[in-house]
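FAQ
Q: What does a multi-component entry look like?
A: The components come first, one per line:
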Amino acid sequence: AQKVTQAQTEISVVEKEDVTLDCVYETRDTTYYLFWYKQPPSGELVFLIRRNSFDEQNEISGRYSWNFQKSTSSFNFTITASQVVDSAVYFCALRNNAGNMLTFGGGTRLMVKP
Amino acid sequence: NAGVTQTPKFQVLKTGQSMTLQCAQDMNHEYMSWYRQDPGMGLRLIHYSVGAGITDQGEVPNGYNVSRSTTEDFPLRLLSAAPSQTSVYFCASSSVREIVGNTIYFGEGSWLTVV
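Then the predicted structure of the entire assembly, as tokens:
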């Protein structure tokens, strides 16, 4: 069985602060895929990033960056200089190698206050 | 969310009624799935399909039925709705053949209330 844990259920920051969302996963697969999704108040799921287990390079996209560490089974997400529009629920997810199981964490609700 | 269409977006049912949530994708994806989202619990997999004629149970399949007669469509049926099935439902699809893909596309969600 695979599992994704997002220990932070809710985070509140003031605009322009940096914030890191934690994600820890468990899997027996040696090849797997990790995702981050954003769910704004409108409800739809927005794809942010996919990371393959064999690629441990960190990635930066604008104000977003991701730190993937296989040694600690973590895939953390940092928003630099947060903005009010970043307010949303963020989900980390793990997909198995066979591709038939996508497991989500419980989500972290981020509130960015002006 | 281009390519995955879910209907209806909102629905209110009475306990015991049946209904079908429709999901269609036009990307020729082999893999389709249904999730439900409840507060604080993330998304949980209900059923999934890896191709036409093939379906399998996910984490929370009880009370739901699916079929996959075509590649494009993957309807989710509630045979006798219960208040515990009040939730937001998401359909998703992806290709399992992409070497560098495996991106999953979600529909916009269906808000279901059972009273």
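Q: Is there any commentary attached?
A: Sometimes. For this entry: The mean pLDDT of chain A is 92.
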